[in-house]
Amino acid sequence: MVYVEHTGQAPSRGALSRPVSVRDDAAAWVEAWPDARILRVNGRGQVRLVDRQLMLEPAADLYSEPPARAVLLGVCGTVHEWAVRDEFLADDFSAGTEVEVGDLRSHGALLDAADADRYVTALALLTWQGDAHFCARDGAPSTITSGGWMRVCTACGREEYPRTDPAIICLVHDGEDRVLLARQANWPARNFSTLAGFVEAGESLESCVAREVAEEVGLVVSDVVYVGSQPWPFPRSLMLGFHATADPRDELVFMDGEIGEALWCTRAEVQEALAAGDWTSSADARVLLPGAVSIARRMLEAWARAGD
Fold first, then answer.
1. What total of structural domains would you count in the chain?
2. Are residues 101 and 22 in the same domain?
3. pLDDT tens digit string along 5-52?
4. 27 is in which domain, residue-wise?
5. β-bridge partners, 100
6. In this structure, what CATH number is given to the domain that contains residue 294?
7. Where is the Nudix hydrolase domain (predicted)?
8. Burial of 184 by CB count in 10 Å (0-12 exposed, 13-18 middle, 19+ buried)?
9. What is the reported pLDDT for 100?
10. Which of 110, 141, 162 is the last residue of a domain?
């Protein structure tokens, strides 16, 4: 899973481009179909991987034409790439082929930038398509158009597009050698992470950081700085990462009931927790941190390295 750090320039999307003009060109889809590739995603959001790469299959071997329910991910060179919600068997390959079946949480960190882009785009679009069968205005059925990137109401013609919900995730530190870690009340006792929450209507990102930190742990933050982002299709979020400073002498107050425990950790303690593995680890550690698929871990790794 790719975490994009802020550099002031737009990051490369890897080998997959998203030409909008192709999405409405059904003739181009048909012409390109013999060479097209398709990613099958099952009902649990799982895909197949071979040698840590997504298994993109020859589309024409599976379907005679682009299925109405498929989504056009983009174009790689001249090859059209699609995704479809479809069940598959883990062992329907020739003997000797090493195939892994996994989802974004279990295998996302293994993917390169281009495959991560394919996967999160497929999950986001297919999940939206599965949830948006009816018009939000009048409840009439809607039809899929634009290669899966738009739905049109059959009654009023209203156009609907896949939504992305912005959410902030913030690494709160003291400006020196300590960082705040927290766990939700329903998490296992040793599982900690950074603070996060959804942006409300009419709210700036910086205001959201201040509000969420205050609601969750009762701290006032300053020096809010954007550091990077990560698509997070559960079901349609974009995680926007920030750093902010707070005073560790202030009392921690869990105001909204979401946080069950929070603690300030030194840089050395964070480095120790990172070395212990992640939430799946059986290591005898006081604190376990999220896995490599998460932007939270990437921010903590970068913060921990800054003290070297």
1. 3
2. yes
3. 444 433 333 478 999 999 999 999 999 999 999 999 998 899 999 888
4. 4-130
5. 49
6. 3.90.79.10
7. 162-287
8. middle
9. 86
10. 162
- pLDDT tens, 65-91? 999 999 999 999 999 999 999 887 655
Q: Are residues 252 and 121 in the same domain?
A: no
Closest CA to 1 of 306, 233, 270: 233
Strand order of the β-sheet with 71-76 is 56-58, 37-41, 79-85, 71-76
Cα–Cα distance between 46 and 256 in angstroms, integer?
34
| Residue 111 shares a structural domain with residue 147 | no
Two structure tokens written together for 144: 């899929």
* DSSP at 148: G
What CA–CA distance (Å, rounded) separates 82 from 22?
12
Predicted local confidence at residue 221, as pLDDT: 98
Predicted local distance difference test score (pLDDT) of residue 164: 92
110/220 same-domain check:
no
The pLDDT mean for the chain works out to 90
Which residues, given as ranges, of the chain have pLDDT below 70?
A: 1-14, 89-97, 307-308
- Reported in sequence order, the residue ranges of the chain that DSSP labels E, i.e. its strands, are 4-5, 37-41, 47-50, 53-54, 56-58, 71-76, 79-85, 99-102, 142-145, 150-153, 159-160, 165-173, 178-184, 195-198, 222-232, 237-245, 259-266
The structure's pTM equals 0.85
